[in-house]
Specification:
The protein is α/β, with parallel strands linked by helices. It contains 11 helices and 18 strands. The chain starts with a strand and ends with a strand.
Length: 356
């Protein structure tokens, strides 16, 4: 079917909204009319990291309405309101033990831009392939083909224009606190970076009952917002004495991907504490053994969440007023995709959400 999508043809150039032909849903897949799609750092990180297949449609925090399903689909049906999250195979050891974010096929299913069989999912008006399977959705578009496994059915009375970011960014930050690090009442938490993922972590740490929640960022407005959302202390991330200002905490969480910040995140841990890393960046992370003594460092994918279980949990917390993620969102028409990217990079907008 003919759709409109924000296509990236060159990492050095802007997105272009184009007409493309989206392939029909195949076995285990569903066609979703996209209502909204959050923009995450992962959607633009290929501008600085090694490129994948281009041209590509990005977007992996979509929400919308199912319009059609392919053969073998039984858990969703046309008319269902859904949030699109990450894909997984369902049969590997990690999936079978409730850890789909560590699926043996995670890279192929989510970060290649293509189906596992290598097909692109769409073509441009010349018939050339367009990669339309970013996180098995490519939701910077009017329509997306997703898999049954990365769809989460939600109550149709909920505002779909807000829910898309639950599929990745908010899930990652909140899941890091509630799942990966198992923050407990009275714990101390340090969150490095008060963007969408970091602020979701701040809100979730408050939900968990953390007594000391320290949030760091370079942007004063984001520090102010962190304080409003639950941080007990906010610090300038550029402070040369940042580690001393933080003190020691039970858990630290880096969203920046900056190696010097990651090192600080480890240094501020109490003995036995854990540092969670989610930021994607370049460079080598070097840690001295004496810094690591009795401490733990782990990389966290998707907040260790099972989306079909965790996203409804976040929605319930939102209904209770305990996870007010709507305060992070600013919406943009799909045609303004480049303005959304710019505002996010400059710190003007915490979580851009595109409305096709």
């Amino acid at each position: 079917m003919r759709i409109q999508a924000a296509v990236l043809r060159d990492p050095a150039k802007p997105f272009a909204v184009e007409d493309v032909d989206l392939h029909d849903p195949g076995p285990g897949e569903a066609l979703v009319r996209v209502v909204a799609a959050g923009m995450c750092h992962t959607d633009v990180v290929l501008r600085v990291l090694p490129r994948l297949a281009m041209p590509m449609i990005f977007g992996h925090e979509g929400s919308g309405v199912v319009e059609a399903v392919g053969p073998g689909v039984s858990r969703v049906r046309p008319g269902d309101h859904v949030v699109m999250s990450f894909d997984s195979c369902g049969w590997c050891a990690q999936c079978q033990t409730g850890a789909p974010a560590y699926c043996a096929e995670f890279m192929a299913r989510n970060l290649s831009g293509s189906r596992v069989d290598g097909t692109s999912g769409a073509t441009d008006l010349t018939g050339a392939p367009v990669a339309a399977r970013w996180f098995a959705q490519s939701s910077f578009a009017t329509h997306a083909v997703a898999t049954e496994r990365n769809l989460v059915v939600v109550d149709p009375s909920l505002p779909l224009d807000l829910l898309g970011p639950l599929g990745c960014g908010f899930q990652t930050g909140a899941g890091a606190m509630l799942n990966s690090l198992s923050v407990r009442p009275g714990d101390g938490v340090a969150v490095f970076g008060a963007g969408a993922v970091g602020l979701a972590a701040v809100m979730a740490a408050k939900v968990a009952g953390a007594a000391d929640i320290v949030a760091m960022d370079l942007h004063p407005a984001r520090r102010d917002l962190a304080a409003e959302l639950g941080a007990t202390r906010v610090l300038d991330g550029a402070d040369p004495e940042l580690a001393a200002a933080i003190g020691q905490v039970d858990h630290s969480f880096d969203t920046t991907g900056v190696t010097s910040v990651m090192t600080t995140a480890v240094r501020v841990l109490r003995t036995g504490g854990t540092c969670g890393l989610v930021g994607a960046g370049g460079g080598e992370l070097t840690l001295r053994p004496d810094i690591l003594a009795g401490r733990n460092v782990r990389y966290i994918l998707e907040g260790d969440a099972v989306p079909q279980q965790f996203i409804p949990r976040l929605i319930e917390l939102w209904r209770q007023g305990r996870f007010p993620f709507e305060r992070l969102i600013r919406t943009y028409p799909l045609d303004d995709v480049n303005a959304a990217e710019r505002d996010s990079a400059e710190g003007v907008t915490v979580k851009p959400v595109l409305l096709p």
